[in-house]
Design goal:
mainly alpha, 3 helices, about 10% strand
Length: about 80
C-alpha cells in the first residue's frame, strides 16, 4: 500500500494533484480514516490500483490544449504596440 506522500514523490506532483486523481476516480484509493467526515481523510493506494492508473495514463494521449485567445479590441481603442 502506498500513501499520498509516496505517490507525490513517485510522480513529482503536488498533494492536490494526487487528491484530485483520487476524487475524480482516475486513481483508486481507500480512505483509512476513523470516521468519515470527522477526520482528515487518509488515503492508501494499492499496487494493483497504481498499475491500473499507470496503464490508463500511458494508453491514451492527453487531450489537446485549447489555443490561447487574444483579447478583442474595441473600435475606439488605439493600440500603441503591435504583437
Amino acid at each position: 500500500m502506498y500513501t499520498v506522500s509516496q505517490i507525490m514523490e513517485r510522480y513529482r506532483v503536488a498533494e492536490n494533484t494526487v487528491l484530485r486523481w483520487l476524487h475524480t476516480g482516475q486513481l483508486a484509493g481507500v480512505n483509512v480514516g476513523r470516521e468519515p467526515g470527522k477526520q482528515k481523510k487518509r488515503w492508501r493506494i494499492t499496487a494493483e490500483a497504481l498499475v491500473a492508473f499507470e496503464t490508463a495514463r500511458t494508453q491514451c494521449p492527453p487531450p489537446p490544449r485549447a489555443p490561447r485567445r487574444r483579447k478583442q479590441s474595441t473600435p475606439d481603442t488605439i493600440e500603441f504596440f503591435q504583437t
